[in-house]
Structures are given as C-alpha cells and as structure tokens.
C-alpha cells in the first residue's frame, strides 16, 4: 500500500473547513504531496443565498493562501458545480487513491444528517479514504490510534495509519476492544504477526480497551489520540442499518477520524 499521491480538501469558507485546511496542510507537508482545494458552487439551488462563481473564487483563494502560509508549495483548485455532497462523492471517485479531508462537525448531529450532511454522505459513499476533521492539532502530533479487531480489513486500515504516524512523527497505538487484557493481547499479537510495516523500527504501543461494546469504548477513548483510524467495513448495506462499529464510531467520535476505504485495497 503506497502513501497518498495527493490530498483533496473541501473548502467552503466555513470554520469547519478551516480545520480541514489546517490538517490538510500538515499532512501534505509530512507526506511531501500537493493539495487540491475543492470548492463546490451552484448559483441556482444553494440557500439562503445562491453561491456564485465569485463566492467560489474567493473561498478557493482564501484556502490556497492559508495552505501556502502553512508550507504547502503545490496547490491546485477544483470548482465543480452542483450540490456539495454529490460533487465531492464524484471527486472521490475520480481520485480514489488520494486522501479527501472535510470538516466533520455535522457527523454527530442527527438533524444535519437528515437534512443532507456532506460529511455523512461521504462517510457512506466516498471511494477514497476520508479524514473528518474535528479540531486542529499542534505542530507535532503525539499519537495516532490504529483500531483493529483482528480482521483482514482492519489490518489494511492499520497499515494506512502506520504510514501517517511515520510521516507526522507521531506514536502509533494499536487499539483493540476486548473482554479482558488477555483476549486483547491475543488479538493484537495475531494482527501484528500478519502485518508488514515499511518502518519496522517504529515504536508501536498496544492499547487494550476493556468493554463489551466496542463502538462505545472507541468513542470514549477518542480524546486520548490526535487521530483515530478505522476501516469502513459496515458503512453501507445491512450492516450500516444494524449499527456497525464503524458507523457508530464515525457518528459518535469527536476527535479527528480517518475512515479508510478497505474495499478498494
């Protein structure tokens, strides 16, 4: 699994997208890749005021200036027209290997989800990995949680998280939920045994969360980490309706979340 060849950042001038821009800049510098600013505009359907091309130009230019001030030298712009959710899903399909970053504040709001949250739509339909930004981080990241349940798909997301931890100089924490410490150690040992890390000397901390409800345990542990990484298994179909762990974590977590599209790896 190679590192992301580029980063896409949704920018609409909101405080939510400001957080996404700052995280996007940090990751772009760490990974040594460029950033594409994506500003969706539609002069006919957006309310309360139609968003014109001039609005899109200003939002994009502001985002570009911010990225450059944070050390990103390769910055480009996309300004598709249409509804933001539809267009960002389309952008993810056009760039499935890139990392898409958007503000994640609306994920925890049931009303926003019903009314058409862009982040919610992406969590279920994006073809690229999506980082949902909830808060900015210091220049030096401390810890990244790599969640695993021992499955093949979770190992794919762990590998992706390891790449980011190495790029950002953060300590990777392999995190699992189990009924007791012994079971947790067994799950993690099995996972580590099947993982092939590009940086074998990287410190890997093992965190076992004791609890019968994995999603609840992960959400409660979220504030302990700068970023939590989880695979998107169960984000669509019957699993989503039945309340998958990934779905509950995505909508309950208040820390930065990387949702890895494990179906494409």
UniProtKB/TrEMBL annotation:
Pfam family, one: Usp
Domain spans labelled UspA: 7-132, 218-260
Entry's family note: Belongs to the universal stress protein A family.
Taxonomic lineage from the root: Bacteria, Bacillati, Actinomycetota, Actinomycetes, Mycobacteriales
Highest taxon of the lineage: Bacteria
UniProt protein name: Universal stress protein
Organism listed in the record: Antrihabitans stalagmiti
InterPro entries (alphabetical): Universal_stress_UspA, UspA
């Amino acid at each position: 699994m190679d590192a992301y060849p580029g980063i896409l950042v949704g920018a609409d001038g909101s405080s939510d997208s400001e957080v996404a821009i700052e995280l996007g800049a940090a990751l772009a510098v760490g990974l040594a890749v460029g950033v594409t600013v994506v500003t969706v505009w539609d002069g006919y359907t957006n309310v309360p005021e139609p968003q014109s091309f001039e609005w899109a130009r200003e939002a994009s230019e502001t985002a570009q200036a911010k990225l450059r001030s944070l050390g990103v030298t390769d910055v480009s712009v996309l300004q598709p027209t249409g509804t933001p959710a539809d267009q960002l899903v389309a952008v993810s399909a056009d760039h499935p290997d890139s990392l898409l970053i958007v503000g994640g504040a609306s994920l925890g709001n049931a009303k926003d989800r019903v009314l058409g949250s862009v982040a919610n739509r992406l969590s279920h339909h994006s073809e690229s990995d999506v980082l949902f930004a909830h808060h900015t981080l210091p220049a030096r990241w401390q810890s990244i949680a790599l969640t695993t349940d021992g499955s093949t798909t979770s190992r794919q997301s762990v590998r992706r998280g390891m790449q980011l931890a190495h790029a950002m100089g953060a300590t990777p924490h392999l995190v699992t939920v189990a009924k007791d410490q012994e079971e947790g150690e067994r799950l993690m040992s099995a996972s580590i045994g099947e993982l092939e890390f590009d940086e074998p000397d990287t410190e890997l901390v093992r965190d076992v969360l004791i609890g019968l409800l994995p999603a609840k345990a992960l959400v409660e542990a979220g504030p302990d980490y700068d970023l939590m990484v989880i695979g998107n298994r169960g984000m669509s179909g019957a699993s989503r309706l039945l309340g998958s762990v990934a779905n509950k974590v995505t909508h309950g977590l208040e820390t930065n979340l990387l949702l890895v599209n494990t179906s494409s790896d």
